Amino acid sequence: MTVDDLEKQLEQAREAHVAAVKAWSLSHARRGPEREACNTMNRAMLEAERRLAAARNEEYAEPIAFPVAWDVGAPLPHLLMNDYRAFLSFYTRVVDPNWDGTYVTVKDPGGATTESLALVEFERCIAAKLGAPNDEVFAGHPLYGKGADSYTAQRVRNSRWLAEIEKIESVHRQYRPETWRTLEHYIFWFHDTTFECIAKSFEVERRACSMTELLAEMARRVTG
Predict the structure, then answer these.
(1) 3-class SS at 127?
(2) Phi–psi pair at 105, nearest 5 degrees
(3) pLDDT by residue (tens digit) across 36-95?
(4) Nearest CA among 157, 173, 150, 127 for reference residue 59
(5) Do residues 155 and 198 lie in contact, with contact meaning Cβ atoms separated by under 8 Å?
(6) What's the distance, Cα to Cα, between the start and end of the chain in Å?
(7) For residues 100 and 30, what is the distance between their CA atoms, to the nearest angstrom?
(8) Measuring CA to CA, which residue among 183, 66, 92, 187 is closest to residue 138?
(9) How far is CA 141 from the centre of its chain?
(10) pLDDT of residue 220
(11) What is the rounded CA–CA span in Å between residue 219 and residue 108?
(12) Residues 76, 30, 105, CA angle at the centre, nearest 5°?
């Protein structure tokens, strides 16, 4: 399939997504067939974006198998790392069956309340960053329109960041190109921040404790 064909497919997918969003908004229903149609069209649009970016050899974001979903409103991620280890913690998504949309629950990471948390350890993490952008300006991110999917964990293919770091490291006398093929560029789209890292792999643990307790454990593990 040619790039022109893929461009036409993407244009059609975007038009279908816009129509689905409009139908959902007119239905005045938070859930229902219109919402499911909107989600289906969104997934189709994202896949079309990825296929086109891959054909152009551009970087793009694709989904990865990630065992937990984080709290959409206030995941409050914390990053702790040194030269050898990197840990990321955040609040996981918990569905309140009694929630009626009239109130919000404020999270206090300094409190002692037991929470549903996740701890992610990244193996052979050579670089990581946590900060801007937030979800209000995701449309300005270079990966927007290239498979970026809000509030999810993704892998970046044809990563420019990974290529830049490898180019710098290539001047080292012990540089081995094959070792860089084992690294991945991960990106996690949170609410107020975005997390990105270059690592070999990751492991996820579910935890039931306070964020204070989990941060203390992270500190012990990163220095242990």
Answers:
(1) strand
(2) -105, 120
(3) 999 999 999 999 999 999 999 999 999 999 999 999 889 999 999 998 899 999 999 986
(4) 157
(5) no
(6) 52
(7) 12
(8) 187
(9) 13
(10) 95
(11) 19
(12) 30
Q: How confident is the model at residue 104 (pLDDT cuts 50, 70, 90)?
A: low
HSE toward the beta carbon, residue 71, CA cutoff 13 A: 20
Q: What is the CA radius of gyration of the chain?
A: 20
CB 157 within 8 A of CB 110: no
| β-pairing verdict for 127-131 and 153-157 | unpaired
In the block, tokens 């990825």 appear at: 50
Q: What is the DSSP string of 70-97?
A: B-SS----EEEE-SS-EEEEEEBP---T
Confirm if 149 and 49 have CB atoms less than 8 A apart: no
| CA–CA distance, 189 with 154 (Å, rounded to integer) | 8
Q: Could you give the count of Cα atoms lying within 13 Å of 54 in the half-sphere of its Cβ?
A: 14
Q: Of 150, 146, 16, which is closest to residue 72 (Cα–Cα)? A: 150
Q: Which residue has the tokens 């054909």?
A: 55
Segment holding 163, helix H or strand E: helix 160-169
How confident is residue 207, by pLDDT bands cut at 50, 70 and 90?
A: very high
Q: What is the DSSP string of 11-65?
A: HHHHHHHHHHHHHHHHHT-SSSHHHHHHHHHHHHHHHHHHHHHHHTT--EEEE--
Round to whole Å and give the CA distance between 32 and 197: 37
> Given the DSSP bridges, would you call strands 201-209 and 194-199 parallel, antiparallel or unpaired?
unpaired
- Interatomic CA distance for residues 87 and 64, integer angstroms: 18
